[in-house]
Design goal:
The protein has about 400 residues and is α/β, with parallel strands linked by helices. It folds into 2 domains: about 300 residues, Aminopeptidase (3-Layer(aba) Sandwich), CATH 3.40.630.10; about 80 residues, Immunoglobulin-like (Sandwich). About 30% of the residues lie in helices and about 25% in strands. It is built from 10 helices and 15 strands. The strands form 3 sheets. An 8-stranded mixed β-sheet has the order 1-2-4-3-5-8-6-7, with helices on both faces. It is globular, with a radius of gyration of 22 Å. The two termini are about 45 Å apart. The N terminus is likely disordered.
Amino acid sequence: MREKYHPVLLPVYLLISFLIMISVYPQQGNNESYVENLNYLNWGYNYDSTLVFLESIHTNPFVKIDSIGASVQGRAIWMITIKDTSEYSGHLFRVTIHARTHPAERQSQWLTQKMVEQLIGNSEIAAALRKHIIFNVVPMYNPDGVELNIERGNANGVDLERNWFVSQPEPEVLALRNKYIEFMNDSVPIKIALNMHGDAGSPMVYFVYHHENGTSIPYTVDEKYFISLVRSHWVDGIADWNYNVTWSTGNPLIFPECWFWVNYQKAVLALTNEQIFVSSKNDTVIIKTANALLNGIADYLGAATSVKQPVLSVPNKFQLFQNYPNPFNPSTTINYFILNQSYVSLIVYDALGREIIRLVDEEKPGGNYSVEFKAVNLASGIYFYKLQTEKFTQIKKMILLR
């Protein structure tokens, strides 16, 4: 695999690049604001800005930075790996994220970098995610297109998003695809693959949902479940699964998600996320979306599930808690909180979306509740439970192990 820069030399390269940059342009204020002042070109966030971001995180103990290959014009395609390397005997997952396929969609990179910042922070959820999950993040997948001010293509004018099934892919596609193959052959394969884009015309953040005609019914159950989990952390800002539905006439065999489905089927949940337009990388929308995505990933993979039954304080909103124990056999407890008197339904579904049992279906006053679910005559597998009131819906996953 072609690599432009050795990872050990990253800090040296970044320093040289920045010195060259300030020798050409007059300095204005601090480094970060100075770099952004140069960004009236390059769609508002350039390759050097990416290097400054990498420089700012490369000494973090949970971060490793390497190049996975080079672009047409020889720019390194950088990958950030985030993982707590301390000893851990539990099950590990891998989540991959790549952004800025289309140079004009700078908000996709800002969102991705905000997720990185949150992941290497000191919060409880960040620590849980680093312990259970290996994150592999490519913040700028198409550096040539950014530097050449090409809206959707690379230096050859090729849309990398639609280049995954050609006989001779562009070097950027080949580099990322080979890395994903390497991960899928690893002892910790990819479980979630997020393809980050930007939609300037949408009023809400959304996922591109793949219809069962191009995937399968079990896959669509997983899609709906994951999207519902992410959305539960920012209901007002993230659209439901049916906001953008594709593949209703079959798999188009074009995009990265198509490639994942053809080669790995349901083993990888591969989805495109579309971030709405913002004018700043510290916009509240970016921060809320990053938080929702990371918490949704934690919920989906069970990365933040406590080893002890949760102590229920009095929350200030409707809430459905993770069942305990999980995995379970033969019974488990589901806790939930309703803010005020509401008609409540709590339903268990199998992996195909078929209703198994209604645990609750009645009017209830506000407060904390606990319900026992006994998995009588059910096979091992993944099940879902949904809490619904007039103003609130949330779904969580539980695992029955016989």
